[in-house]
Specification:
This protein has 229 residues and is mostly helical. 78% of the residues lie in helices and 0% in strands.
Length: 229
């Protein structure tokens, strides 16, 4: 068997065992420790995003060549024999019918979360390093060169005026938006008050009148009965 065929056979087994773990963690007979590892491995193996991108030389293939196979091997070793056999049969049937592994968007979200955490830690560490050297004294030498000072001042003035104009425009736009929202809310309140007034005039007042009439009729009938009695 050539090296290429050996690699292909190994990759096929890894792919089959990844799908096997997908069925194994759903099996009620799987122990909780093996089930936890299976969930982690399945989420990572079926993620459309790699933790270490493949375009990074050498390191980009470490997760596919070492990390993922090692985790799959560990999870398979922890599975009971009957669960492993049943899961492999289900995995073989899945691969024969669909020919592709499932996709785990939860795993992709976890990978993105790890990236964000690493980026946040790197930013925190970088800011901490800058703060650590904040008490050091730096000496700089500047040599003023009078190169068209009038033009430089004109550019600075124009830049400041542009900032002022932009601030005024932003303020005017914010005022316009706030006024429009206020007028819209005021119109809603007025329409709601009109609806309440119409409801009172068309429903509440006639209902109260009917109640008063019924009460008066009942009282008159009761007085008549008392007189006859």
């Amino acid at each position: 068997m050539t090296f290429i065929s050996t690699v292909r056979s190994w990759a096929k087994r890894v792919k089959r065992d990844a799908v096997t773990l997908w069925f194994a963690y759903r099996n009620p007979a799987t122990p909780w420790l093996a089930k936890s590892i299976c969930i982690f491995v399945v989420a990572y193996a079926f993620s459309p995003i790699d933790l270490i991108p493949d375009f990074i030389p050498v390191i980009g293939f470490l997760d596919d060549a070492l990390l993922l196979p090692g985790l799959i091997w560990l999870a398979v070793r922890l599975l009971p024999a009957d669960v492993l056999v049943a899961s492999r049969l289900s995995a073989d049937q899945w691969l024969e019918q669909r020919g592709a592994k499932p996709t785990s968007y939860v795993g992709a979200a976890c990978v993105v979360a790890v990236w964000l955490a690493v980026a946040g830690f790197a930013l925190w560490y970088w800011l901490g390093q800058r703060t650590a050297y904040s008490d050091m004294v730096s000496i700089g030498v500047s040599i003023p060169l009078q190169v068209a000072p009038a033009q430089r001042q004109d550019r600075e003035t124009a830049s400041k005026l542009a900032l002022v104009d932009k601030a005024e425009a932003d303020l005017a736009e914010a005022t316009r938006v706030a006024t429009a929202e206020y007028e819209s809310l005021l119109g809603d309140v007025q329409r709601l008050q009109q609806r309440i007034a119409r409801y009172q005039a068309s429903v509440v007042v006639p209902a109260q009148q009917r109640i008063d009439a019924a009460t008066a009729g009942y009282a008159s009938i009761r007085r008549a009965n008392d007189l006859n009695g």
